[in-house]
Amino acid sequence: MEDPKECGVEAALNLIDGKWKGVILYHLLSGRLRFNALGRKLGAVTQRMLTKQLRELERDGLIVRTVYAEVPPKVEYALSTKGRSLEPVICALKAWGDANVLGVQAEPVRKAG
Question: What domains are defined for the chain?
Answer without folding.
Answer: 4-102 (1.10.10.10)
